[in-house]
Amino acid sequence: MLTQPLVEVRNLTVDYVGANTVSRAVNGIDFDIRPGEAFGLAGESGCGKSTVAFALARLTRLPGLVSGGAVRFMGEDVLSFSAERLRRYRWSEVSFVFQSAMNALNPVIKVSEQIEDAILAHRPRASRAETLARAAELFELVGISPRRLDDYPHQFSGGMRQRICIAMALALEPKLIIMDEPTTALDVVVQRDIIEQICELKARFGFSVLFITHDLGLMIEFCDRIGVMYAGELVEVAPASAILTAPQHPYTRALGRSFPPLSGPRVRLEGIAGSPPSLSALPEGCRFSPRCGEAIPICVRLAPELRPTPATGGEAACHLLQ
Ligand SMILES: Nc1ncnc2c1ncn2[C@@H]1O[C@H](COP(=O)(O)OP(=O)(O)OP(=O)(O)O)[C@@H](O)[C@H]1O
């Protein structure tokens, strides 16, 4: 039996509105996140990954505007949530870990108080003893001694601060944690430790993750499925293992060739020739066609739609496959 997806994104469209211009940063994308799944969004800088993450959490702010489509969370229409429903949705059901832990933590308040405040904002009847016990438990979960609860953010290393942000994200036992470049600012060893810890916590508590990172290798290791975005659209969705071993879309192949392999001999990396189009000058047809070495005449005339790809059990939008 198929379980209901935790998140359903349907035909989601997000614009950035300027004085005389509208840039469509996300152009009608569809994907699901299943319960307990880590779903990654990959693609070059500016392709719209963070814009999607913000829309999913209803955090889009002007000049950004969700101009179409739907986001459903456990079947409920997130885009029409009331202020009160939204308050419960954020943190209790969906929480976030962003790149800059230093900006997320208040430098002049002890971390224990910050965690307790996050709990109290949603569980106002919790006693001091309860919130303190929960803060200590959360510290232990992310591998920091509760003896350090009374320290200030600057007394922790970058990796520990990021662990504290993960502890805060876990505080209310959300069903989805959105992680946007959660370990980018950290060195490789610390980054790997933190990702392993998130994997353990995910296995233990069963939450889903929307994971965004530029590190395709890390994403493939951590995620179950990956959506590859190009210029505001999803060009392929596939099991993570297929992204390198059986990429269906020419852009997925190009992206894979531009990253170091996870194992085996060293290979020469190839960048992707050219650069993504500006949102104000999008090409006709497939948006990747000007950079695609495999383009055929129809590619410059007609935009391909996402279609199932039997080879991976996923979907890809490419005329060569249709
Ligand atoms: N506040 C804004 N005003 C105008 N345009 C914006 C704004 N924020 C993002 N954009 C544009 O929207 C597009 C998508 O940006 P977004 O940050 O979502 O991409 P991304 O894939 O997350 O990039 P990165 O990997 O660099 O974080 C880009 O073209 C960007 O220039």
From TrEMBL:
Any one of the GO BP annotations: transmembrane transport
GO MF terms held by the record: ATP binding; ATP hydrolysis activity
Domain ABC transporter: start-end pairs: 9-256
Gene3D superfamilies the record matches: P-loop containing nucleotide triphosphate hydrolases (3.40.50.300)
Coiled coil residues, start to end: none
Subcellular location: Cell inner membrane
Pfam family, one: oligo_HPY
GO cellular component, one term: plasma membrane
Membrane-topology annotation of the record: Peripheral membrane protein
Alphabetized InterPro entries for the sequence: AAA+_ATPase, ABC_Ni/Peptide_Import, ABC_transporter-like_ATP-bd, ABC_transporter-like_CS, Oligopep_ABC_C, P-loop_NTPase
Keywords from the UniProt entry: ATP-binding, Cell membrane, Membrane, Nucleotide-binding, Transport
Keyword Nucleotide-binding found: yes
Keyword check for Membrane: yes
Domain of life (superkingdom): Bacteria
NCBIfam families given in the database record: oligo_HPY
Family affiliation: Belongs to the ABC transporter superfamily.
PANTHER family cross-referenced by the UniProt entry: DIPEPTIDE TRANSPORT ATP-BINDING PROTEIN DPPD (PTHR43297:SF2), OLIGOPEPTIDE TRANSPORT ATP-BINDING PROTEIN APPD (PTHR43297)
Protein name: Sugar ABC transporter ATP-binding protein
Phylogenetic placement of the source organism: Bacteria, Pseudomonadati, Pseudomonadota, Alphaproteobacteria, Hyphomicrobiales
